[in-house]
Amino acid sequence: MTKRLSWDDYFIEIASLVKQRSTCLRRQVGAVIVRDKRVLATGYNGAPSGMKHCEEVGCLRDRLNVPSGKQHELCRGLHAEQNAIIQAAVFGASIEGSVIYCTHTPCIICAKMLINAGIEKIYFVDGYPDELALSMLEEAGVPLICLKRHNDDPEEANETKE
Q1: In DSSP terms, which residues pair with 99 in a beta bridge?
Q2: Given 56, 81, 155, 156, the catalytic residue
Q3: Catalytic residue at 81?
């Protein structure tokens, strides 16, 4: 019999699956907003609905040599966290008091949105080079909790209390 996934492993695996819809040429990111062990919304990074994706038109950030973590406005895409927040709003789901599982730590723009949306905790797997985001999340009292993906090392799967 296989070991049952913890809740943290379950939701971070969903975020990893969601990121596979990403159309970003630089970094694929997935996000899942959860409250009371229920998925409220998901998001991945990519161009707005109905617009051409970077896969089709190329990466503006690469053309302009914009480094990661800088000048977020120079991009066709929305971030995974932004798309998850928008999805929740479109479908009328309040995300205040929820948590978010992301494949990466948020940038400063997403961090500010998550703080104002009332997200209580951020679970992530990989980092993102944005010190201001980390500083503001700390000041706001929003903990960042690093998880290993279940598939990365099954011997060290995340343990969560029920």
Answers
A1: 34, 121
A2: 81
A3: yes
